[in-house]
Write a structure and sequence with these properties.
Length: 454
């Protein structure tokens, strides 16, 4: 009996030793390409249980994704395109999303071969994004074609201008239009500093500064006077360093600097033009009236009651709107208690809807759902219910401050057209309510109604 157990144990050990060899036993060859260029792998891909295994760290680093090894070397933590951490451990048939119960199943176990943790290419698809890996089978040969998110296409014939003066003809596409940061910022009056060690760009014009880290999707902007800091989402792809400069999306310059942005596909230009009012600059008027950048809680810390803080918050939305209108020589809007009452009722209604989880805010904001009351009513109908007899339009936002709400509207063509409506004798009313669901805890549902009295 002992001999039987001993023979069985030796057989198991023998098969285990053969397992790595059997992975390469099939007459299948592999090659790896990155952006069309052949890449030499430190260890050849292997085929097992219908899965193609590749060295995890090497491939993810090609896609500019950082990796973190465990202390015992039996696992690595990999970051996906949304900065979420996934654990790949040798012996498991799945990768695990950190701090959750979520996982992605694999067709075979994660292997350790020749000093490398090998994961199925399907896991790379899950982490890197479906657009970044293409598997091309040619008989017994398989090509793994990777496309990094640094894939840059030069758009010849396009130019970028600042106040109608050509600044650069370097216009690129990385899923969307990107421009070199240095000449654009310098033309707008910013000082530009590049730190090669940290791979970060810092720009500053005395009023606004921004930190632009290569490899990130986020730009960090600071108002130099109030020291308020906010984040600007740069793009669907990471910020890149290409041909000696940082490339950022065309639209991000407007978000950072406040210079108006206009792309003209017919003339093949991207033009930035200054106005009397820079979007994020604290002008002399707003410096003596900083309430537009304050949250409800901050107003209450100054000694205002909740009711007073809400009144100040709502009115400051109109103050910021009129700043934009004055900078463009448009007539100022006047406050309307009637429209404010209709706005407040709708904000409270939508806050209840969001709080109940009836619909998912990230999927529907900004969208028409927010403009439909729980009873199916539309903007004009609700204004009439509160006694408004004229025409009324409506903007909505979920934000923390009055200026934050207007910023959202100014980034959207439809919403901006209401803020900058050129009609005379316009009235406006603002109403807010608090939403405490879907990650918007203590954010404000803000409704703006603009109308023209008959």
């Amino acid at each position: 009996m002992k001999r039987f157990y001993m023979a069985s144990l030796l057989a198991v050990i023998f098969l285990a030793l053969l397992a790595p060899v059997s992975l390469n036993a099939q007459n299948r060859t592999f090659s790896l390409q990155l952006d069309g260029k052949e890449i030499q792998l430190p260890v050849s891909p292997v085929f097992v249980d219908g899965e193609i295994l590749v060295p995890a760290c090497f491939v993810m680093e090609l896609l500019s994704r950082p990796v973190i090894f465990s202390e015992d070397g039996s696992a690595v933590t990999l970051l996906d395109e949304f900065e979420q951490e996934w654990l790949a451990r040798v012996g498991l048939r799945r990768i695990l999303l950190s701090n959750t119960e979520q996982s992605t199943s694999l067709g075979t176990e994660i292997q350790y071969i020749d000093g490398y943790i090998m994961i199925p290419i399907r896991a790379v698809l899950r982490l890197g994004g479906s657009g970044y890996v293409t598997i091309q089978d040619e008989g017994a040969h398989t090509t793994l074609a990777l496309r990094s998110n640094r894939l840059v296409e030069r758009n010849h014939g396009w130019i970028a201008t600042v106040d109608r003066q050509q600044i650069t003809d370097r216009v690129y596409t990385i899923l969307e239009f990107h421009l070199p940061a240095t000449p654009i910022f310098e033309a707008m009056g910013f000082e530009v500093v590049w730190d090669d060690f940290s791979q970060q760009m810092f720009v500053d014009n005395g009023s606004i500064s921004a930190l632009i880290p290569v490899g990130s999707r986020t730009i960090y902007v600071t108002d130099s006077r109030s020291l308020e800091t906010w984040e600007v989402s740069s793009s669907r792809v990471r910020i890149q360093f290409y041909e000696g400069d940082v490339l950022i999306p065309a639209i991000a310059f407007e978000s950072i600097t406040g210079w108006e942005y206009a792309g003209n596909s017919r003339e093949r230009t991207f033009d930035y033009f200054s106005t009397d009012h820079i979007l994020f600059e604290v002008t002399q008027e707003t410096a003596t009236n900083p309430y537009s950048n304050m949250r409800i809680g901050q107003l209450m810390e100054l000694g205002y009651s909740l009711e007073e803080a809400i009144d100040i918050f709502e009115y400051q939305v109109l103050v910021v709107i009129n700043e934009h209108r004055a900078s463009r020589s448009l007539p100022l809007m006047q406050w309307s208690d009637t429209l404010a009452g209709a706005s407040r009722a709708h904000s409270e209604d939508i806050a209840r809807v969001i709080g109940s989880g009836i619909f998912d805010v990230p999927a529907t904001h900004p969208g028409s759902t927010l403009h439909t009351g729980s009873d199916g009513s539309g903007p004009s109908e609700r204004a009439r219910r509160h006694g408004w007899t004229g025409i009324a339009g409506e903007n909505m936002a979920i934000a923390l401050t009055p200026r934050g709400a207007v910023f959202i509207w100014m980034r959207s063509t439809g919403h901006r057209s209401l803020v900058l409506n050129t009609s005379n004798d316009l009235y406006a009313g603002v109403g807010i309510s608090t939403v405490t669901n879907h990650g918007f805890t203590n954010s404000r549902v803000i409704t703006l109604k603009v109308g023209q009295d008959r």
